[in-house]
């Protein structure tokens, strides 16, 4: 079955540590996105990539980094520069025509 | 740029009531429209979609019709259940032929929290 997979489901980060969230899709979608969701809030765009080896900053990119070396994969690194990283992170992919858009199940990141 | 305006919540209804959640949009190109549902602690699930004007998306008793003349994609359900309690997001993606990569980034409304009481 085609789909989009995020891992891990839960992640704990110590102060000053970088952590990487995984997002993999086998839908052959060109575009992939990372969103952040805080409790009771909507979605805020962190980064997106519409083609391999290219990505763009979203509305809240500071303290995050991404790479897009393969079409299937779009990992997000939460760096120590992100001062308030505790949140729910969602990855999405969309096809070139913009008619299919799916989300992973999310990663809940907590700073300990 | 593209935008989605969604009915503010929260919305509280009694079981078996009729549901409407309004969604209007502005977009360039040829937008596809989506409704997603998010249950507590989970990711977003695609509920339904419509990819061209006058299309009706439907799933699990929910329906939404893509109305180009009113730039709307309102979500409706004839008789809601307690299990429909969730947050609902309206979204669009606008395809522009000839653009560098073809599709625009996915644009979301703010979400509407729906609570159904028995």
Describe this structure in words.
The complex is a heterodimer of chains A (112) and B (118). Chain A contains no helices and eleven strands. Helix content of chain A is 0%, strand content 51%. The model of chain A has no long low-confidence stretch (mean pLDDT 93). In chain A, strands 2, 4, 5, 6, 9, 10 and 11 form a seven-stranded mixed beta sheet that branches. In chain A, strands 1-3-8-7 form a four-stranded antiparallel beta sheet, with no helix packed on it. In chain A, a hairpin with a 2-residue loop joins strand 5 (43-51) and strand 6. Chain A is globular. Chain A is an all-beta fold. Chain B is mainly beta. The radius of gyration of chain B is 14 Å and the shape is elongated. The termini of chain B are far apart.
Low-confidence stretches of chain A: none
What count of helical segments of chain B does DSSP give? 0
Rough outline of chain A: globular
Mean pLDDT of chain A: 93
One letter per element, helices H and strands E, the order of chain A comes to: EEEEEEEEEEE
Largest sheet of chain B: 6 strands, mixed
Estimate the mean pLDDT confidence of chain B. 91
> Which class best fits the helix and strand makeup of chain A?
mainly beta
DSSP strand tally of chain A: 11
What percentage of amino acids of chain B are in beta strands? over 45%
Oligomer: heterodimer
Alpha-carbon Rg of chain A, integer = 13 Å
**Principal-axis shape of chain B:** elongated
Q: Give the distance, in angstroms, between the N- and C-terminal Cα atoms of chain A.
A: 36 Å
- The unreliable regions of chain B are none
List the helices and strands of chain B in order: EEEEEEEEEEEE
- Cα distance spanning the termini of chain B: 41 Å
Strand content of chain A: over 45%
- Figure out the total of helices of chain A: 0
The structural class of chain B is: mainly beta
Helix % of chain B is under 10%
């Amino acid at each position: 079955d085609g789909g989009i997979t995020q891992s891990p489901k839960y992640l704990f980060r110590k102060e000053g540590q970088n952590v990487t969230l995984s997002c993999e899709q086998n839908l052959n979608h060109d575009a992939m996105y990372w969103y952040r969701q805080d409790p009771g809030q909507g979605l805020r765009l962190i980064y997106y990539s519409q083609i391999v080896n290219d990505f763009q900053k979203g509305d809240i990119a500071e303290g995050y980094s991404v790479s897009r070396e393969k079409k299937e994969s779009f990992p997000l690194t939460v760096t120590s520069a992100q001062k308030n990283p505790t949140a729910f992170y969602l990855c999405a992919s969309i096809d070139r025509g913009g008619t299919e858009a799916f989300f992973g199940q999310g990663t809940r990141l907590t700073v300990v | 740029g593209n935008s989605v305006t969604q009915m503010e919540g929260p919305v509280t209804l009694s079981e078996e009531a009729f549901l409407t959640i309004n969604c209007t949009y502005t977009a360039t190109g040829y937008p596809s429209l989506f409704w997603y549902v998010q249950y507590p602690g989970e990711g977003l699930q695609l509920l339904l979609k419509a990819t061209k004007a006058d299309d009706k998306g439907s799933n699990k008793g929910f329906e939404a019709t893509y109305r180009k003349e009113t730039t709307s994609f309102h979500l409706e359900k004839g008789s809601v259940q307690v299990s429909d309690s969730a947050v609902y997001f309206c979204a669009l993606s606008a395809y522009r032929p000839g653009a560098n990569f073809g599709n625009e980034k996915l644009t979301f409304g703010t979400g509407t929290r729906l609570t159904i009481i028995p």
